[in-house]
Amino acid sequence: MAKTKEKAVPVTETLNKQVANFSVLYMKLHHYHWYVKGENFFTLHPKFEEMYTEAALNLDTIAERMLSLLTLPTATLTEHLKIASIKEADGEETAEQMVKSLADDFDSICTELTEGISIAEDQDDQPTADMFIAIRSSLEKHRWMLEAYLGE
Ligand SMILES: [Fe+2]
Asked: Domain holding 12: CATH number?
């Protein structure tokens, strides 16, 4: 079951990448919260707020897990943009494109978390695996809802 290659990736690296992702996502969701327009404004504006509030919690929880492991989470926006796999808002999205972009972001973070869960389990780091499982479960629900919104 354990994959030799995955074992070589330190848990710290996978944790820090998610710190960066949730940092970028936090601002991206604010961007969408502020700039969403159209007939679904009153649905999406509060939904994006709910999601950035959760992103902030995830950011803090993952960063503090790193500190508990005596490792240092990156804590500048410059570094987060370099490390994150999530791309910032580009400022041109329609409401529908915002929802699609977030569904894709949640999907790719879920894939990375799945890898992170295996890495953590391989290294007997059950608390990190448990934390990633909880975050993944919530993101999968958001992804489903965003895709349902799009009629997918
Ligand atoms: Fe607001």
From this structure: 1.20.1260.10
